[in-house]
Please model this.
Amino acid sequence: MDTFNNLMHGFSVALTPFNLLWALLGCFLGTAIGVLPGIGPALAIALLLPITYQVSATGAFILFCGVFYGAMYGGSTTSILINTPGESGSIITALEGNKMARNGRAGPALATAAIGSFVAGTIGTLGVSFLGPIVVELALKLGPAEYFSLMVLCFVTVSAVLGSSAVRGLVSLVFGIFLGLVGIDRQTGQQRFTFGIPELLDGVNVVLVAVALFAVAETLYLALHWRSGQEEILPVRGKLWLSRSDWRRSLFPWLRGAAIGFPFGVMPAGGTEMPTMLSYYAERKLSKHPEEFGTTGAIEGVAGPEAANNAAAAGILVPMLTLGLPTSATAAIMLSAFQSYGIQPGPLLFTSQPELVWGLIASLYIANVMLLVMNLPLVGLWVKILHIPTPLLYGGILVFATIGTYGISNSVVDLFLLYGIGLIGMLMKKFDFPVAPVVIGMILGPMAEESMRQAMTISQGDWSTFVTRPISLVILLIALVALAGPKLWVMMQRRVAIP
Amino acid sequence: MKSGTMRADLGVAIFVLVLAGLIFFGAVSIAQTPMYAAISAKFVPYLCALLLAVLGGFLMLDALRGGWSRHLPDADGAALNWTSFSLLVAGAVANMALIGTLGFVISASIQFVLTARAFGSQKLLRDVLIGCAITLGAYLGFDRGLGVNIGAGILEGLI
Model:
């Protein structure tokens, strides 16, 4: 019962007044960020990174994870009430949730989303608590070669497997890796791609890139496609509670959603979109009321995906805390916060920083309870946030973008970079290039380079080390299958179909 | 319309290829060091250039076959709103030009007002008031509260 003792210790950390306050603040901000369309947790955490100079690591990460979880809760409110997902994990929720709201069942839709998020979030957090130490055991056996292979797998899954096109995803990834190269090489001390600009010696700042891609690009894109006219915000009608039949119809979708979401988060498959989609299709298949899907709105279609995105969010924390591998843009930004504390994320984190790890995990349980309260009785508050006029919302977002960027070193060069990369991000959005791989490549690229060099130093310059070590070989083969598998599958299907 | 999106896609493919070329030449010019390293500082840059060149080639093939953009929901030929876009860019440029001399609160407020205008706001006075309130609040919170240095300026000197 080692985990249990650790967890108890974690609660003693998380229940101190200050850490409770950080969790509360994180949940509050996260829900607000989730509710507001167009901005997500990655941007919010990037803008909050400066608190790492002032606050202890434990407090900061409790805040960040509160934001991360909160965004998953808040996103559903927007999806249900205005049919625009507040957050990418809630895209699917809009399908059925908005239909329910149009038929006067906004209350039950919000309730099943919030309670489902709570159920799945708690199951996911249990998963983190018990799976985390096991993964750590395994991870301690991995050397630099295996780490490098894991990162390659991570690169492939976040860029090539998800999204509509492997080629465009990989372009985004390589662009991110390139951005990560700018500056002084950590090992040899050589300058790379600095073009003689002193501001670039320290490299391109992650906050800058995140703000550029998630705030500036989004705003530019919206302005370019702007039509006047307000979106319709549906009123919250129907009791904010579930009837007996709603409970019955929600329970299994919640559990199935959690069962689908958590493994997806844990595997370096990244993101919350994929599991929500799978959960949606599963519920549509299994539902006893298929006629409600796409017509009056089926409660299963809200319960399942909402559970799945919260469980996936919890799952994402497993590789981040145990291996130091980010599988989503948000996790990548959190990882850069570890770096700014000088903490090496990875398997040793559990033994070197038990206060931080277990305090954080315990606070996730607390955050789930806080979020349930915030999102059910207090849902009216978030509906008010939805009424913020768009001009003021985007004006405000750019003000915070300026702070996040100009605050780095008071340099106008950074602002130029911000809008330059923002413009590239807008074009990427226009031409359907995903932006999350850029951030992941930027953080993970230098780490992968370091592992590769360590592995090559150990093997004395022998490249075969990556394929002769069995674990490394297996991971690389999985990456290869993930990269080429879908294409081969299509080709095989065709070959079978032709004769 | 179709040929329009195709030409745009070709442009994207060429952009990626040019980027690959630039990274290649940037990698060539990384200084050599006598220090031994199993993998030199040039290795990953060359790899990036190579990968981008290959990927750019794939994009080029795709574009020549008609491109991918025509399948996007965005490609319905809706007119782009250049007025909004220009106002937004004007706000950004104003901010960059003025932040060094007038300080964050004033320059970001100007950007706020121009951005609000870009998204169709007609209430100038309201935007100015709210813009000043947000920038002041943000300045106090981040600069004084969190210790993020957002620079000096006219208004900042007074508080």
About this structure: The two ends of chain A are 60 Å apart (CA to CA). DSSP finds 21 helices and two strands in chain A.
